[in-house]
Amino acid sequence: MNSTASASGPPAPSAGAAGPPSAPSTPSPDSPASSGSPGSRSSRAARRGGARVRTHRAHSPWLFLLPGLLITLAFNIYPFVATVWKAFTDARTLTPGSFVGLDNFQEMLADEQFWIGLRNSFLYVAAVVPCTVVLPLLLALLVHKNLPGIAFFRSAFYTPVVASVVVVGLIWVWMLDDRGLVNAVIKTLGFDTVPFLSDRWLILLSAMLVTVWKGLGYYMIIYMAALGNVPRELHEAASVDGAGPVRRFLSVTVPGVRNTMVLVGALSSVAAFRVFSEVFLMAGPDGGPAGEDTTLVMLIQRTGTGLSGRVGYASAISLVMFVITMVLLLAVFAAERRDKK
Amino acid sequence: MTSTAPSAAPGNGSAPGEGTDPRRPAAPAPRRRRRVRDLRNEDGSRMSRGSVAVRYVLLALVFLLCVGPFLWQLSTSLKSPGENVYSDPPKLLPEHPTLDNYQKVGEIIPVWDYALNSLKVALANVVSNVVGASMAGYALARLKFRGRKYAALVFLVAMLVPAESIMIAQLTTMRALDLHNTLTAVVLPGCVAALNVLLLRNAFRNIPEEIEEAAIVDGAGVWQRYFRIGLPAVKGTLAVVAIFAFMGAWDDFLWPLIVLTDDSNYTLTIGLNFLHGTFSNNQRLIAAGTMIAVVPLIVLFACLQKYFFRGVGEGAVKG
Known about the structure:
The structure holds two protein chains of two kinds. In chain A, about 70% of the residues lie in helices and about 0% in strands. Chain A is mainly α. In chain A, helix 2 (about 15-20) packs across helix 4, helix 7 packs parallel to helix 11 and helix 11 packs antiparallel against helix 15. Chain B folds into two domains: about 30-100, no CATH class; about 110-320, MetI-like fold (Orthogonal Bundle), CATH 1.10.3720.10. Chain B is built from 16 helices and no strands.
């Protein structure tokens, strides 16, 4: 995510605007030089400054941007702004509400469901992220060799990514049913039925399992690209020094893909914190026994929707969630930067 | 992290494809054997027969883990009412395979209407994203104008805000526009996704200046350049955007769940959730429903694999 921030930083090619005066090589015969990529920008700037070719009408860019900007402003930016100010009102679905200061946030502090939601969302991050950082890396190691038929396996491992979270959730609800396949196997092995979908902790654990399972293929593909960039010479050198496969994995592969591990960690921690569907399907709309499995997004959904939805309070929770998400992201990257030093 | 982005992007497109296409078709048995013998470990040493075997065993295990649940669901959906789906030990193959459940699930909920709704939403999402995001991306990448930086910033901010944290306000907005409980409302918030705008902007940026300059000299207007030079040059990224727009809309759950209240407008995922809540004791029907929802996407994936893999790289790096 940050990468986009940094990717959009450099463009600022309005540098071209500063180009014309400082570039005396105005005439067009500089075309041979312009074939070199570093020179092309300045040469173009020079040409524009010199010949003043008009490339488009003043309003054209805005026509191009109109649909995208309109949608983004109306259905993303405006709702974000609205969320911020509604968080300080007592708005409901059918009434706009009035300003109530920090009431919503005070209520939140005393709201048991909020703390349960916060706890579960954080538990989700704590349990899911290590798995999604490590397991897909191992999987990528397994499939990045060109064994015959490997393409088939890669595709197969990606199948859960393609399926809807609802499909995946329902498949596992059936798998983990008291009389489902998993419990049948467990019984065959001589153990008691495990109440995956009725015990409050097991429900959460099952949902986490589904999340990890669904993400395996996705993060595997990300890791595969990174593995290709680990120089073979390092492996050879380590091998000559007598390092076995495990040792090489820890001291060559892992450092080689650590940037990608941070990226995966960031992506999956934000995704895990926002978990909704898996828990919603496995625990039910009310969040399992006594609502103990409610996550933060489930709470927002339950509080803010419906005809009597408490839009103000739900917005306040949303705002808290947004802030925590940003802090999570910053924390991941800050930790990474500190590690590097 | 900043360094990950550029390094991961190019590699990702090629890495999955590399092993896929060129070698698979022509691989008679003897050549294969030779290839296995030539496989090498990371350090260049030859991979032993034993370790190749271990790899295949592991691959088979993971295969079972990843695909097995789908096959179990498929099997359940084909089991006839007379067959005990809870049998102990479980029967992996249906005794008398039947499509009855697919017909029955259509009698209980209008599952085919829901599928049509999902299809409409998905196609609308594809068209609007391809058109809207490529236009905006083109302007941001290839046209110089005052305010460009701010326009780009709008998309960047929109991309960083998690959808879940603004969904209540989006719902309020839809109510204000009297659009809630319509398929239009399902499509609108994501119909020109900021991520896609930024992806396409990056793709358009890679077009060499000289080509466009030549077109300008030849008198091509901005629309002509967009259609004749821009779009053909970013076909690959457009395909990725289209496929992920389709998949995203077809699979989406939370937003349609809160914006659709009338069961005649449900999309397939919401219909399945309803089925799960109401007929949770009939596993065969739910299994049939989930198969209806997932098979089209698996077919799509089977046909267009490389774009799915590319999309992961581009989406992950930028998103």
